[in-house]
């Protein structure tokens, strides 16, 4: 049987992390290793919850922000060094459905040249006492803009522009072939799409696995993510340099509509302080 590791990045969100830990412990197959990469957060420590041990890899903040891409690479390297041959990357806000680990493990074992994405439901605000982990399937309502083949089914050859790191898995051999995330990306935005295209360029295939279902815990968000304006503009420019086109076009257009950014002399530049704009609205 393959050895499966789940890797999660965390900076804060401690309650969400604890709930994810419990959800993994309840699964039909527990991961053999659970690795949390603590980005500039020394309060996250190794622990055991419901019989599942959490390992911690500490990664410092970089001057430009949290090193999401580098942190994913560090977490996967730690898992592979410990003997994992399948790695599941799960966002800290995501609860694992009961069969998520089992479905990913089976798919990566039988089709190791495919990078598998799962199906994600965005949950409403939790009731008092939190989400009932025994009844997550009753809340199943996948993101409408993402493909969902349904439990027991899979889609192949999916658009790399739709790749996101909320929930995905790959065999160790595929990770080595793709080369991991580009660590030039720092902060929020762009590194997912870059990785999706790097996967295709390396000769691997994208697929969506209907049985790997995750549930994104509610938290306040801003649309567009104005608090990440500088990150998005910087990472969009990097993506354009690497791939010859602009990513995150919806966000860039929304920033422009709000007077926060403009396209000048062939590049996107900030035109206002997003914090001041938020305070004035």
From TrEMBL:
One of its GO terms (molecular function) is glycosyltransferase activity. The keyword Transferase applies. InterPro entries: Nucleotide-diphossugar_trans. Pathway: Cell wall biogenesis; cell wall polysaccharide biosynthesis. It comes from the Bacteria. Keywords: Glycosyltransferase, Transferase. Belongs to the glycosyltransferase 2 family. PANTHER family: GALACTOFURANOSYLTRANSFERASE GLFT2, RHAMNOSYLTRANSFERASE WBBL. This is Glycosyltransferase family 2 protein. It comes from Nocardioides anomalus. The lineage of its organism: Bacteria, Bacillati, Actinomycetota, Actinomycetes, Propionibacteriales.
């Amino acid at each position: 049987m393959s050895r499966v590791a789940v890797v999660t990045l965390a900076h804060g969100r401690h309650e969400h992390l604890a709930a994810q830990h419990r959800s993994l412990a309840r699964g039909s197959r527990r991961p053999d290793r659970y690795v949390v990469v603590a980005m500039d957060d020394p309060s996250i420590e190794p622990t055991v919850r419901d019989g599942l041990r959490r390992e911690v890899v500490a990664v410092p903040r970089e001057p430009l922000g949290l090193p999401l891409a580098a942190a994913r690479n560090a977490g996967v390297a730690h898992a592979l060094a410990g003997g994992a041959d399948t790695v599941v990357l799960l966002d800290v806000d995501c609860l694992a459905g009961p069969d998520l680990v089992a479905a990913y493990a089976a798919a990566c074992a039988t089709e190791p040249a495919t990078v598998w994405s799962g199906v994600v439901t965005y949950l409403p605000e939790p009731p008092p006492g939190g989400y009932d982990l025994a009844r997550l399937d009753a809340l199943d309502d996948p993101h409408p803009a993402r493909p969902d083949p349904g439990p027991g089914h899979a889609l192949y050859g999916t658009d790399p522009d739709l790749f996101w790191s909320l929930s995905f898995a790959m065999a160790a051999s595929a990770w080595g072939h793709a080369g991991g995330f580009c660590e030039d990306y720092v902060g929020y935005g762009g590194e997912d799409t870059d990785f999706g295209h790097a996967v295709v360029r390396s000769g691997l295939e994208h697929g969506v696995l209907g049985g790997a279902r995750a549930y994104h815990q509610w938290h306040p968000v801003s649309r567009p993510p104005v608090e990440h304006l500088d990150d998005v503009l910087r990472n969009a420019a990097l993506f354009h340099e690497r791939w010859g086109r602009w990513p995150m076009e919806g966000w860039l257009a929304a920033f422009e509509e709000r007077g926060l950014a403009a396209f000048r002399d062939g590049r996107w530049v900030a035109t206002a302080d997003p914090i001041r704009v938020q305070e004035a609205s």
